[in-house]
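Structural prep section.
Before we set up the soaks we want a predicted structure of the protein with glycine in place, mainly to decide which crystallisation condition to try first. Input record follows.
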Amino acid sequence: MKRNIGDTVIIGGGVIGLALAAELRLRGQDVTVLSRKPQEAAALAAAGMLAPEAEQLPEGPLLSLGLRSRALYPEWIGKLERLTNLSAGYWPCGILAPVFETPDVRLNQENWLEGEALRAFQPGLGPEVVGAWWRPEDGQVDNRRLMTVLHRAAERLGVNVQAGVAVTALSLRGEILEGVETDAGMFLAQNYVLASGAWASELLPLPVFPVKGEMLSLQMPPQANGAFPLERVLFGPGTYLAPRRDGRLIIGATVEVGNWSAYNTPQGVQTLLERATRLYPGLACWPLQEIWWGFRPGTLDEGPLLGPGPWENLTLATGHYRNGVLLAPVTARLLADWLTAGQSDPLLEAFSYRRFEESL
Ligand code: GLY
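Run finished without errors. Recording the C-alpha cells verbatim:
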C-alpha cells in the first residue's frame, strides 16, 4: 500500500519530532509523524531541566544553541499553552549547582555562593557541600506535561500522528529518498526528517548510541507554611534534584553508555539515592514514588546532528543527548526555517553529521 501524504514525514514522535511537526504545521505544511512507541520517548523519562549553564555545556556552538533555546522557551511554551489550554509546567526557577570540592577559581566570581550566605539561600544542603554556583536563568519544564501539550498541539494543528507505526527501511532512488517503508505500508513525502533519538542508527549508519539514565521520584512533604522544602533545582556532582510545584521531586540520573537494558537496577537506584542524600540529606525519609529509565541519544561530541543528511531530501534532527528538552524549540525553529525556506542558520553547520564522517 502506498500513501501520498504531503510535505514532510518525520520519523520519531519524541519531543524533537513533535516540536518540529507543530512548527511546520504553523507554517502551513502537511506533516506526518511516525512514532513507533510514543511511550519510549526520552523526553518522557527526562527531568525537564533547562540548564545550558548548570550542565556546563562547553563554550562554543553547543552552548550558543542551548542559550538560544532557553531564551525561546517562554514564547514557545506560551504559544503551545494557548493552543492547547494546557500547562506544561514551565518554571524559570533557577538552578543551584553545589560542589563538594572547592573550585580553583571562585573568589569574587559572580554567582558563587558559600558559607552562611549559601546555607541561608538554600537550607538543607549536606555538610560536605563547600559552595555552589547560582544559575538564575536556568530553569525547568515538566517534561511529561510538555509531551502531553505537544501531543495535544499536534492534534489541534492537524499533524497526522501515526502512533505504533515502525519504520523498517528508507527507500532510495538515486540520491533521493523516495519513501519510508513501515509495518503499515510505504509513506511518501517531499522531505523526510530523522528524529528517532537513540534509535536513529537503526535506519542510517550514524554515530548515535543509547546512554541509559535511571531516575526516581519522591514526594516532598509540605512545610508548616504550606510550601515545599525545595523551590529550585539542585544540580550537584553526578546528580540533580528537580522539585515540581506539585511537590514531586525528580532525581536523576545514571549515565550508562551503550546500555539498552529496559529496566531499573538495584545498583542504579542505590547510586541515585546515595548521591542525592549526600547533596540533600533530608530527603532520605521522604516517600519514594516511582522509578524509571530512559535512553538518551548520545553522540561522540555530545552535540546533536542537525540539518541536511546524506540525501537531498533527508534532514537530521537527532543526537540531542542530555539536552533534548532544552533544545526542542531551537531545533524546531532552525529546521523549520531550513525545510520551509531553505534558510540555513550559521549554527546548523556546526552540527552537521559530516563532522563524524571519519567515524562512519
Ligand atoms: N539532562 C539531564 C540528563 O540527561 O540526565
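Observations: The chain has a mean pLDDT of 96.
Flagged for discussion at group meeting.
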